[in-house]
Amino acid sequence: MHDLLIAPFELGFMQRALVISLIVGALGGIVGTYVVLRRIAFFADTLTHTVFPGVAIAFVLDGSLYVGALVAGLVSAVLFGLMSRRDALDDDAFMAIMLTTFFGFGVMVVSRITTYTNDLVVLLFGRVLTVSRDDIVVTSALGAIAVLMVAFAHKELTLRAFDPEGSMAQGYRPLLLDLWLNIAVTLVVVASLKAVGTVLVIALLVTPAATARLVTGSIRTMMAAAAAVGMAAGVVGLLISYHASVNHGIRLAAGPTIVSVLTLSFLVALGGVTVRRRLRRPAALVAA
Amino acid sequence: MSASIAVVAGVFDSFGAVWESDILRRALLEAAVVGAIGGAIGIHISLRRMAFTTMALTHATFPGIVLAAVLGVNLLAGSAIFGLALVLALAALGRVRQLDTSTTTGVLLAGGFALGVLLLSAQDGFAKDLTSFLVGSILTTTNAELAVTVIGGAVLALVLAVFSKELIFSAFDPVGAEAQGFSLGRLDLIVLLALEATLVLTIPSVGTLLSVSLLVGPATIARLWTDHLRRAMVIAPLIGAAFAMAGIVISHAADTAAGATIAVIIGLGFAVSLGLTSAPVRRFFGQLPRSRHHELRPAHEQPTTSPSARPVSPGKVSRHGLGRRAAQETELVR
Does the predicted model carry a pTM greater than 0.80? Predict the structure, then answer.
C-alpha cells in the first residue's frame, strides 16, 4: 500500500506535480461548472488554441510564457465577446475560424525555428513532471483571481445562464457578464498551461463539471463534486502514469493519463445514471 | 500601377516555380481538391451549425489513426472504422438528457484526443507524429494519396448532391421536414458520416487544424457574401480551392509551414469579408438604406429596391425555429 500510494510522492518532482494537479483540478471543476451551465465548451476549446500564438511569440522572444498566453487569451476573449453580439454570424463558425487562424499563426511563428516539432509538443501538452516552485506560485495566483471573479458574480452568472431575458430585464449587461466569465476562463487556461498544456485544459474545464452535472441538479453540489472529480483524477492519473513507467516499462504521458481518468469517470457516471433510470421506469409505469 | 503589375507578375512567377516542382505541384493539387471538398460540405456544416462537432471529430479521430498505425492495418480503413464508432457515440451522447450537445461534444473531443496522445506517448517518435497530425504534411502528399482524395471527394460530392434537397430542407425547417415523413436523425447521420469521411480522407495529408479551417472558413465566407444558397454552394468550393492554393504558393515564398499559412489566409479572408459585408460599409456604398430605422420595419413596409439591397442580416436561423427568413430561403432552394 505504501509503495503504491505514498512512495511515488516522496520524490520532489512528483510532489510538485501532485500540488499543481490538485490546484488545476479544483480550478477546472469550479470554473468549469459555469462553462457547462453557460454551454460555452467550444469557447473554452477555442481559448486553449488561441493562447498558442502568445506562447509561441514569448518562446521566440525568450519572454514569460504566462504573459504571452495571457495577452493572446485576453485578446481572443474580448474579440469573441464583441463578435458574438452580431446576429449575422454563427458563434460556432466564428470561433472555429478564430481558433484555426490564431493557432495557425502560432505554428507559422514556431515553424520559422528549424527544429520546431519538439518545442511545439512541449507548448501544447505541457510537462506536469517538470513544473517548478515558481510555476506553482503563478498558477495559484492566476487561479485565485479566477475563483474570486466567479465567486463575486456567482448570482449574476447563474441568472444569465438560466434566464438570459430575465437577467437583461433586471438591467444586467449581457456583454459585461459574458466578458467577465470569458476572462475567468482565460485565467484558468493560462494557469493550467504548464501542467496539462494548452490543448488538454479543455478536459479539465468540461469533463469534471459534466460528470458532476450527471449526478446532481444543485449548482453548489455540482461545483463541489466537479472540483473533487478534477482533483481525484489528477492524483489517480499521476499514480497510474508513474507506476506504468517505473514498474511496467510502459511510457504513459502524465497529462493525457489524467484526462483519460476523467473521461472514464464521466463514462462510469453516465452508465450509472442510465442504469438508474432503467431501474426506475417499471415503477413509474406501475404508478401510472 | 507599375508596382501592382510587378506584384502580380511576381505572384505568377512564384506560382510558375511552384508548378515546376513535382512535390509542390502535388501539394497544390491536393490543397485545391481538399479546399473544394471542404467548401462543398462546409455549406451543410454551416447550415446545421456543426463547427464545434467538426472540431471535436477531428481530434477524436486521432486515436483511430494511431491505433491503425500501431496495429499495422491500413490507415484509411482503420481510422474509417474508428470514425464510424465515433459518429455513433456522438449521436448516442446527444441523447443524454442532463447535458447539452456542446458539453458532450467537449467531453468527446478531450477524451478522444487524450486517448490518442496516450497511445502515441507509448511509442517512439512521439513529437514528430503528433505535430504532423496537428498541422499535417501537405508537402509530402503522394500520388496515391492525391488519387484517394480525388476519388473520395467525388463520391462525397455525389452523395451530397443526391441528398441536397432533403438536407437543406431539414436544416431550415426541421419541423416541416419531419411532418413530411423525413427522419431527422437519419439526415443528421448522413451529414455526420460525410463529415467524418472527409476528415478520414484529409487529416493524414492536411492535419486537423487545416481540416477545420477548410470545412468552416470558405462556407462561412461565402454565406457572408450571399444569402442565396445555390450561389453560396458554388462560391464556397471556389474560395476553398483558391485560398488553399494561394497558401501553398505564399508558404513556399515566405518559408512558413504550409497548412498553417492556409489557415491564416482563410482567417484574413474572413476578417476582410466581415468588414466589407458589414452594415456600415454597405450603407456607405448605398447598398442599404441610410437610416437604421428601415431595417426594423416589417418586410412589407420596407422600400423595395433591387434584390441585392435586402438587409444583410440573415438572422440566427434556429435549428428548431421556423423564422420567416428561413422559410423564404427554403422557397428559393426549392
Answer: yes
Instruction: Name chain B contacts of A107, Cβ cutoff 8 Å.
Output: 134-135, 209, 257, 259-260
CATH numeric code, A2-287: 1.10.3470.10
- Residue A258, C-beta contacts closer than 8 angstroms, at least 6 positions apart: A21, A128, A196, A200, A203, A233, A234, A236, A237, A238, A241
Tens digits of residue pLDDT in B282-311: 787 777 766 554 444 444 444 444 444 444
Report if residue B300 sits inside a domain.
Answer: no
- Could you tell me if residue B1 is inside a domain? no
Please judge whether B114 and A89 are an interchain contact, meaning their C-beta atoms are less than 8 angstroms apart.
no
**Helices and strands (H, E) in chain B, number of each type:** 15, 0
Residues 208-237 of B with CB under 8 A from A: 209-210, 212-213, 216-217, 219-220, 224
Q: Averaged over A23-30, what is the pLDDT?
A: 91
Task: Provide the 10 A C-beta neighbour count for residue A25.
Answer: 28
Instruction: Name the residue range of residue B316's domain.
Output: 6-294+308-333
Which runs of consecutive H residues, i.e. helices, occur in B21-93? 22-47, 51-60, 62-71, 75-93
Could you report the per-residue pLDDT of A133-181, keeping only the tens digit for each? 888 888 899 999 999 999 998 888 888 888 888 888 888 888 888 888 8
pLDDT tens profile B116-144: 888 877 776 555 566 677 777 777 788 88
Short-list B74, B48, B204, B238, CA closest to B132: B204
For residue A90, give the C-alpha cell.
454563427
Instruction: Give the C-alpha distances (Å, rounded to integers) separating B248 from A47, A268, B23, B265.
Output: 27, 46, 11, 10
* Residue B299 within a domain: no
- Chain A segment 69-108 residues within 8 A of B by beta carbon are 87-90, 92-108
Return the higher-pLDDT residue of A94 and B23.
A94
Q: Is A106 exposed, middle or buried (0-12, 13-18, 19+ CB in 10 A)?
A: buried
What's the structural domain count of chain B?
1
Alpha-carbon gap, residue A53 to A72, rounded angstroms: 7
Of the pLDDT bands very low, low, confident and very high (cuts 50, 70, 90), residue B185 is: confident
Predicted complex ipTM exceeds 0.90: no
CATH code of the domain in which B56 resides: 1.10.3470.10
Helix (H) or strand (E) holding B126: helix B126-135
